């Protein structure tokens, strides 16, 4: 009694087109998981930096001391730290000019922080479009491999005089693996994209709130 072919056997017996589709999906899946782990670590670090900075910012210390501390760090400032430094640096530069109104000084600092905010969000959003693309296209790529494999199976079946289910079943099984791999690549990518988008929106909201609060503080100092 012959044993059923294994998963590896079905992949190796598939046509070149189906194998190529499987390879593309496997590469996409590996890249997706790499981006998922890196992005999860990156967002967690950004949130941790934000919480630590806000706690120190509202502790009542001098803003000048905080700026010098961040500027003197061996570690490059990140996230909300860079937003604060951009705003404070611009405000200090404009504050040295006596012929400029307080409103202009504050607006200039706010504009500098908005620019830094945009750069930071672009950096955090860098790999999310790839996850969205994998999540939306992988099932269709896998389906293409399945349709191609089934088409070949029925073409071969038409050339047989006595066709049975046993003749066509292996070919259909090979083809369906492409759809399975497509779903395997798509589902984690979609879940990760939705989760990271939510966390990024929450982080962006905290950045926006900090800018508004910092601008209010600068108005008092100006």
TrEMBL record:
This is Tol-Pal system protein TolQ. The chain crosses the membrane at residues 12-37, 128-151, 171-193. Keywords: Cell cycle, Cell division, Cell inner membrane, Cell membrane, Membrane, Transmembrane, Transmembrane helix. The Tol-Pal system is composed of five core proteins: the inner membrane proteins TolA, TolQ and TolR, the periplasmic protein TolB and the outer membrane protein Pal. They form a network linking the inner and outer membranes and the peptidoglycan layer. The lineage of its organism: Bacteria, Pseudomonadati, Pseudomonadota, Gammaproteobacteria, Methylococcales. It is a multi-pass membrane protein. InterPro entries: ExbB/TolQ_transport, MotA_ExbB_proton_chnl, Tol-Pal_TolQ. The gene is tolQ. It is found in: Cell inner membrane; Cell membrane.
